[in-house]
What does this fold into?
Amino acid sequence: EQPVLEPVLPEEQNGTDSAKAPKVSCEERNTTGIERFTLQILNVSQDLMEFLNPNSSDCTLVLFYTPWCRFSASLAPHFNSLPRAFPTLRFLALDASQHSSLSTRFGTVAVPNILLFQGAKPMARFNHTDRTLETLKDFIFNQTGIEAKSDVAVTKEDWEGPLPSVLTKGIDWLLLFSVLFLASFVLYATLRTESIRWLIPGQEHEHQE
It folds into this structure.
């Protein structure tokens, strides 16, 4: 059984001062021999922890998404362009509905959700509602001190993949689970309140009257 990782530190919203020291000291990977920089999408049989080396200081940006979430689809072309902007970092994406245990483990019930890992440890979460290439660049720079390549922009190819920017029809299981959990909690709380009410002296007499 894999150990539970420490809670993710939220990103500071005012972390735009470039003079600040990086929060995460990333070991930049060797890009020699790599001709095409792109993100990798994990399938249902692949485990995220197999792609994260706990004994390394390299950094990986991981996106939790669902193919039928319109916010995930609008983010897709921007996230697809990131590997070219930061070739020394690694980028992974996974369908949160197919990796529900990971979603629970890292608190990524809402999608899209982006976590910065150092080795196998989550270090920061991207919290901005404006999910563009520029805000993602700023987030990575503020956390790691690594500057993006200035000539990278979102292209037509980024809209085509590898992360899909077109919605697919399906059931949002994460949303359904959240609604069912909330409904169950409300029902449980109501029943508990009613049972406690009958244990209070005098309450049952008032009810009979």
